[in-house]
Automatic annotation (TrEMBL), chains A, B:
Residue ranges annotated for the HTH hxlR-type domain, each copy included: 1-97
Keywords on record: DNA-binding, Transcription, Transcription regulation
One Pfam family from the record: HxlR
Name this polypeptide is given: Helix-turn-helix domain-containing protein
InterPro entries named among the record's database cross-references: HTH_HxlR, WH-like_DNA-bd_sf, WH_DNA-bd_sf
Record flagged with keyword Transcription: yes
Length: 102, 102
């Protein structure tokens, strides 16, 4: 388990994987979807996922320059593994509702 | 995804699931296996997992009293879902090694 935790552990990385799975996104788009994340923390998490080979950062030399983040092939395999967790949440939605703190 | 993240998001919960999957354990045993967690943070994480219906806390009325933590049936299903992540880590161990920060 510990390797996967090293990669997606922490408060934001699983949320981030979820947003990135929808396709290439810009920094501002990600930030709007991750309610409450600071610019600094988001940038740090993206850098860490890039260093792990999970996220690809593409710089388009336009004016102004555009940067898009997406999952690498390795990131896509991680996303598949995370799908089991999503299914679990869906399957136990009623059981969990009301138990989770607001 | 968000329901599962609500349950196991954060720095320690996935580690905790991993330790609890091995069977009923006492607080001190868990703490020794989760290197670096404080008593306060571990207690809080256990309480949250108990509130989510993932962890069962059993008090044995011995002298001194003994408390053991284990996964509930719901917790066992979550553990199964997490197994895909463990497999992913094993399958990509070489690819990840060296990339992850120490």
């Amino acid at each position: 388990m510990s390797l996967a935790i090293d990669v997606v552990g922490g408060k934001w990385k699983m949320h981030l994987m979820w947003v990135l799975a929808e396709g290439p996104v810009r920094f501002g788009q990600i930030r709007r979807k991750l309610d409450g994340v600071s610019e600094k923390v988001l940038a740090e998490n993206l850098r860490q996922l890039e260093a792990s080979g999970i996220v690809h950062r593409e710089l388009y030399a336009e004016v102004p320059p555009r940067v898009e983040y997406s999952l690498t092939p390795l990131g896509l395999t991680l996303n598949d593994a995370l799908a089991a967790l999503e299914t679990w949440g869906d399957q136990h939605r009623e059981e969990l509702a009301g138990r989770l703190q607001p």
